[in-house]
Amino acid sequence: MALYRRGRIWYADYYAQGKRVQESTGTTNRREAEKFVALRSSEVQRGVYVKPTQISLDDFGERYLSHAKLHKRSWLRDGQMWRHLRDFFGDVNLGSITPLGIEAYQQHRVRSVSSSTVNRELALLKHMFNLAERWQFHQGANPVRLVPFLREDNLKFRTLSEAEERKLLSCSPPYLREMVVFAINTGLRSGEIFRLTWEEIDLDLKRIQPIIRKTRRPLAVPLNEMAYEVLVGRHAVKHGPYAFYNPATGDRFKDCKLGLKGALRRAGLTGITWHTFRHTFASRLTRSGVDLITVKELLGHSTITVTMRYAHSNEETKRAAVGRLPTSDKVVTVISRGRKNADYA
Fold it and tell me: CATH classification of 162-316 is 3.30.40.10, yes or no?
C-alpha cells in the first residue's frame, strides 16, 4: 500500500478484491495516515475488507433529517443549516468532503453571517459525519475534526439605539412596525411571535404565555404599555387564531425577512436581524439595572450562563454601582486630617 498527499490530506493507494482503491485517510498527519494504511492492509490480508458504502450528500442529508425529526427539538433549524451546506458542497459523495473544502465553506459563509452561525453549521456537519460512521456510511476520520472552528466574540451583540429604532419604524409598513415594537418590548424570538395565538394572550392581566419550542416550556411574559397597545390594536382587527398574520394572505407569517430587509434598506441600517430585537430587549433591561435572574426568566433561558452574555456595563453604570457603597463621615474626617498633617510635615 502506498501513501500520497492531495493538498494537506494523506491518501492511501492500494488494491482490494482485485480493484484499485484510492481512499482519503482523513488526516494531515503522516503517522496517523500510516496507522490507517496498516489497518486497511490487515483487513485486506485477513479477507475482511469491506469497501465503504458510497452515499451522496443529498441521500445522507435526507436520512439525517428524518432521524433528527424524531430525536431533536431543533430539527427545523437543522434543516435550514443543512440547506446552506448542501448549496455549497453540491450533491457530492459524502466521503469526498475534505478539511480543505470545509475551510473553503468557512471563508464563504463568514462573509454573510457571524462566526457563531458558521460554527453551528459546522457542528451540525460534524454530528452528521459521526452518525454516518455509526450507520456505516463513512469510514475514516471525521473531516470536520481537522478544521478549527472560528473564533467567536460572544460579548458583542448588535443592538438598536433609540435613534435607529425610530428610523426603522418610520421606514416600516404598519404590519412590520407592530411586530418590531412587540419584539423589542417582549424579547420574543421571531418564530414565537409568528406562532403567538390569542389563546396564549390575556389582555385583562396584560400577560402572554407562549410555549417556547426550544425548551418546550411555557413562558410567562408581562406586557408593558407598548406591547399591550400593539395587541389591543391587533385584537381590533382579529382574524383567525394568530395575533400577527400576513395582511396580503390572511395566513400567519412563517418568515418576514424580506419585509425587514426592505425596511432596513430604506432606513439605511445594516447588521440587523430579527434576533437583534431580542438582544436590544435584554440589553436595555440590564442597562436599566434589572437583575440577571429576572432577565433570564423573561428571555426563557434554561440556564443563567446564556444570560450572562448580556452582563455588560458602561462607564455610567459602573460609577452608579460604586456610588452605592456606604460611606462614613468618620472615615472622610480621618482622610481629611491625614492630608492636612501631610501638608505641614
Answer: no
